[in-house]
């Protein structure tokens, strides 16, 4: 059953488990943050398929990720700064634009990734991720590292590798963690 979800279209792709910093200044998005705070809910982050981040409502991609606010502050620039974390994936069934310019979508939630071990042909990707994180000294602020789990390794690679927006979006749209890892192999060759 479809559910209504306010969207924040961006020139980025948020994957499940990834962190995202966001500065909020437009009234429609300040209203969105207030509404999410009151309801204890998240909002959708979708890559912009057509349009811009500010101004007229943008056309969102057909697949996105629910974002939950982990922290907020007022920055030195006086703007609201959010720290978000990606959660569930969704597919956009339809959109409407509210009077204030906020895009709201009817979404269908994607099935959660199965908890499955890395297949032998993907073990190298787990090791590549481990080495990338060691070299970058990146703290993904993820409660536990799961280098032997297919979905976790795939999403973390999608988060840290220098991929184009379109490549990252294709990975987000893939429902099968093993096929996502197969696609990752093709991207890093």
Show the helix and strand layout.
Blueprint (H helix, E strand, L loop, with lengths): L2 E8 L8 E6 L2 H13 L3 E8 L8 E16 L5 E18 L5 E7 L13 H14 L13 H11 L4 H9 L3 H12 L1
Parallel strand pairs: 1-3
Antiparallel strand pairs: 1-6, 2-5, 3-4, 4-5, 5-6
Helix pairs in contact: 2-3, 3-5
Work out the number of β strands: 6
What spatial form do the alpha-carbon principal axes imply?
A: globular
The main pleated sheet reads as:
5 strands, mixed, barrel
Label the structural class: alpha+beta
Q: What string, H for helix and E for strand, traces the elements in order?
A: EEHEEEEHHHH
Q: What strand order characterises the main sheet?
A: 1-3-4-5-6
Identify low-pLDDT runs.
Answer: none
Kindly provide the radius of gyration, computed on alpha-carbon positions and rounded to a whole number of angstroms. Answer: 17 Å
Rounded mean pLDDT is: 90
What is the CA-CA span between the terminal residues? Answer: 40 Å
Please report the number of helical segments.
5
Helix content: 25-40%
Estimate the strand proportion: 25-35%
Would you mind describing this structure in some detail?
The chain has helices at 27-39, 123-136, 150-160, 165-173, 177-188; strands spanning 3-10, 19-24, 43-50, 59-74, 80-97, 103-109. The chain is α+β, with helices and mostly antiparallel strands and 189 residues long. The mean pLDDT is 90. Helix 2 packs across helix 3 and helix 3 packs parallel to helix 5 (177-188). A hairpin with a 5-residue loop joins strand 4 and strand 5 (80-97).
Short descriptors:
single chain; 189 residues; alpha+beta; 5-stranded mixed barrel; 5 helices; 6 strands; 31% helix
